[in-house]
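All the exercises in this workshop are built on plain-text protein records. The record below serves as our worked example for the rest of this section.
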Amino acid sequence: MAKVELTPLRPWDDFFPSSERFAKPDVKDLAKWNNRVVSNLLYYQTNYLALAVVVFLIVGFLNPLGMFTAMAVVSGVFLGSLWAGENRAAINNFKRQNPTAFVIAIMVASYIVISMLGSVMVFMSAITLPLALIFAHASFRLRNMKNKLENKIEGAGLKRSPMGILLEALGQQEENFQKIQSFLEGKLKE
């Protein structure tokens, strides 16, 4: 098993190049769109982390107590959902069959608990804003050859990253691992 490595911070001109490297995703082909998002999440994970940290810091300075409350609630709901997904067959099946709905359920549950605690605006600005920016970039940014190569290396298990571990826990990469494993097994038989 490969050790966990943080990917390098991608240069600004690679992360946010000219407009020809962005395109509207094909909403009719959800598998292709999901593949683009997952690939970009893996490739630009350090840039996304930097973006989220900047937004967290700004909101944290403006409302530290609300920020702490929002982080504690989201962490608790996320860890609880991962535990339930591993220990409850029905939830695990739902997570495998509907990974996007599972993530949305985590966000909705977090929102409901935070609204009870009165920190909704902190949640919206500190957690939802970076997630929305990251999802928009990952959806619209076209992949390049280096991006595809890095994702194949991670998918084959030769390299592990924090985002890869998170996506695996959310059930987003299992089919990619199976495709790569089938491909490698086919090549070994030849």
